[in-house]
Every structure is written in C-alpha cells, then in structure tokens.
Amino acid sequence: MTEKFDGLIERMLEANLLLPEAVELLERSMIYRVLERNAGNQCAAAKQLGIHRNTLQRKMAEFGIGNGKARRRKPVAKAVGPKKRKNPAA
Questions:
Q1: What is the model's pLDDT at position 22?
Q2: Domain layout of the chain by residue ranges
C-alpha cells in the first residue's frame, strides 16, 4: 500500500500539483467512495472517515457531492397545553 501511495505522490509532484489541490482531490475521492459504499448514509460514512457528520456535510457542499445540501429535518412542533373551552358550562 505504501509503495502505491509513494508512486501516486511522485506522479502528483511531476504534474506540479499543489498541496491544496492534492488534499482536495484526496478528500473528494474518499468522501465520494465512502458514501457509495454506505449507500448514501452520511452518519455511517462520517464514522468510517473518522469525522463528524456536520463536517462531512460541509465538505459535501464544498465539493458539490450529492445535492450539495445537508438534509433538513422538519422543525419540532411546539408543546401546546390543554385546550381551553370558549364557553364553559355554568
């Protein structure tokens, strides 16, 4: 594995790829593949990558992976007390 990685680094250096570009390429590829392996399950993908789910969602938006947006949940309904009668029986 180390030999393959060293060869990849050599090719990147020969192509004059800058470090930020190389890091972005690695992150984008890893995120995309882990999401594929986990059938789009972001929680499982984040766990496998060793990052927080919010970080994964931010990077997905940054790299344009998926729809580029975090999935939004419906807001929780406010707690409502018991209904009051308008015309109480006298």
A1: 93
A2: 39-67
